[in-house]
Amino acid sequence: MIAERPTVLVVDDDRNTRDSLVRGLSRAGYEVLGAEDGSKAIPVLQDREVDLMITDYKMPGIDGLRLATTAQVVRPSVAIIMISAFVNIDTAVSAIKQGVFDVIEKPAKLRDVKKAAARALETRRLVVENRRLRADLEGRDAMARIIGRAPPFHAALTMVEQVAPVKSTVLLTGESGTGKEVFADAIHRLSPRAEKPLVKVHCAALADGLLEAELFGHEKGAFTGAHIARKGRFALADGGTIFLDEIGEIPLTTQVKLLRVLQEGEFQPVGGSETSRVDVRIVAATNVDLETAVADGRFREDLYYRLNVITIEIPPLRQRREDIPLLVQHFIEKYSRITTKHVNGISPGALDRLQGMEWPGNVRELENVVERAIVLATDPLITETELPATEDSRDPTPDSIPFRVGQNLAELERAAILRTLKAVHGDKDAAAKILGIGVATLYRRLKEMGESA
Ligand SMILES: Nc1ncnc2c1ncn2[C@@H]1O[C@H](COP(=O)(O)OP(=O)(O)OP(=O)(O)O)[C@@H](O)[C@H]1O
Ligand SMILES: [Mg+2]
User: Fold this and answer.
1) 255 falls within a domain
2) Do 172 and 229 have their domain in common?
3) Number of helices (H) and strands (E), helices first, in the chain?
């Protein structure tokens, strides 16, 4: 942010020029600091929120161009104007290529310097403002793409908004396909780190030794195949967020190192002896119960407590069935756009069936089902024909019938009869016996249900 009263740093080895610029700009309302050369200017840039640096080109020691380069490293947001008695097109072009906003010919008139300063500060304000707006929009966008308003889900979303601005470690728990990665994205996008990298590591996908090198990097020759030194994911995520997916799968030796990063913010690359420090926000996810893993000795208890500072539990889809219509509509829009098929809705019967399913694969499974239905659809409306075969054949435990509050008895009776018949391979006597009804009743029911007896 630019303060109400911008701070300007004037760097010139010529005392007269420097003093007159300092005075003139102070009178124009700026907070003005002076430095007599590059080596004096750098500490000022480090310590003070300098908004604009006006530097001479030719100075003893570091020249204006080199100072400009260094300044942008020390204080990336600083705007720079260069004043030079030796302006030719080449120096001007190379200065501007190196991020200098304007080059003014010496002797510079105060009026010209003030004009250039105002322009540089305004441009910089717009750039900063734009960046902030963009990050803001992306953050809100990330939230808007998360569909669901059932109370347990909404509670989880509210936590995302609450924890995003701080650096605290977040542990996301939830079954496969519930949206842990989607949440991790939103936490990063909504955080002040949004413009820095979000680095994702799938901890289960790498062999034991490799994971450690992947996370912390390695020196050249650290292990067979390590021909060159490589930065690890923690170093790449510096200033940003690291997403450790399937954290429950991290081997114990790596857990020790991870604990150190969490506690101290430091680590050593594999095969190295130098300690690296990083500023990284950790978001971890697991679909296994870490407490059980701790009890089984597979997960360090101290690490678990460090990770478990803020836990966001994402409920499985079957515990938020009221969100299914919203999600279905969302995926219909998404896939009809991608496939350019004009599907815009779903029949009540088909939706009803989706709402009654168990969804062991949660939102991901629902998304796949809708995508498939859209590919198969011949009308603008998805019907039951495009849905996967009935629940019966999908259910991994065919001797149980899923029941949902709000389901009517006739439906359940129908399911009970058809399932039982299937289990006894159509033997009606056996089915009637199991169901506790007479064979005649069974026949009658089948007829009422429109099933050939
Ligand atoms: N609330 C939601 N709104 C919209 N899309 C969602 C939502 N939750 C999940 N999805 C979508 O479902 C899919 C699975 O989500 P995600 O990858 O985040 O799940 P996960 O919990 O990380 O699963 P796993 O444990 O298997 O890695 C993604 O395509 C994601 O875009
Ligand atoms: Mg995931």
Assistant:
1) yes
2) yes
3) 19, 14
Cα 215 to Cα 177: distance, rounded to the nearest angstrom:
24
324: CATH: 1.10.8.60
Please indicate, yes or no, if residue 369 is contained in any of the structural domains.
Answer: yes
Do 325 and 286 reside in the same domain of the chain? no
Inside any domain, residue 142? no
The span from the CA of 82 to the CA of 92, in Å, is: 9
Distance 362 CA to ligand 1 centre (A): 8
Q: How far is the CA of 140 from the centre of ligand 1 (A)?
A: 18
Structural domain including 69 reads 7-130
Ligand 1 lining (C-beta closer than 6 Å): 146-148, 174, 176-182, 287, 330, 363-364, 367
Q: Are residues 196 and 309 in the same domain?
A: yes
State the closest ligand 1 atom to the C-alpha of 314, by its place in the atom list counted from 1: 21
Phi first, then psi: what are they for 13, rounded to 5°?
-80, -15
Q: Decide which of 270, 294, 315 is a domain's last residue.
A: 315
Q: What is the pLDDT along the chain (453 residues), one digit of tens a residue?
A: 445 799 999 999 999 999 999 999 999 999 999 999 999 999 999 889 899 999 999 999 889 999 999 998 888 889 999 998 877 888 888 888 888 999 999 888 999 999 999 999 998 888 878 877 877 777 778 888 899 999 999 999 999 999 999 999 999 999 999 999 999 999 999 999 998 999 999 998 877 678 999 999 988 877 777 778 788 999 999 999 999 999 999 999 899 999 999 999 899 888 888 888 999 999 999 998 999 999 999 999 999 999 999 999 999 999 999 999 999 999 999 999 888 888 989 999 999 999 999 999 999 999 999 999 999 998 899 999 999 886 554 444 456 666 777 677 887 888 889 888 888 878 888 888 889 888 888 888 888 887 765
User: Which ligand is nearest the CA of 175, by number?
Assistant: 1
Residues 303 and 351 in one domain: no
At 240, which CATH number? 3.40.50.300
Residue 151 exposure: Cα atoms within 13 Å on the Cβ side: 0
Rounded CA separation 334/347 (Å): 18
Residue whose Cα lies nearest atom 13 of ligand 1: it is: 364
Ligand 1 centroid–CA 197 distance in Å is 20
- How far is the centre of ligand 2, averaged over its atoms, from the C-alpha of 242 (Å)? 14
Report the length, in residues, of the chain.
Answer: 453
* Residue 261 host element (H or E): helix 252-264
What is this structure's pTM? 0.65
Question: Is position 331 within any domain?
Answer: yes
Give me 253's structure tokens. Answer: 């030796």
Q: Are residues 157 and 303 in the same domain?
A: yes
Q: How far apart are the first and last CA of the chain?
A: 77
CATH number, residue 405:
1.10.10.60
C-alpha 186 – ligand 2 centre gap (Å):
13
Specify the CATH number for the domain of residue 118. Answer: 3.40.50.2300
CA-183 nearest atom, ligand 1: 18
CA of 323, closest atom in ligand 1: 1
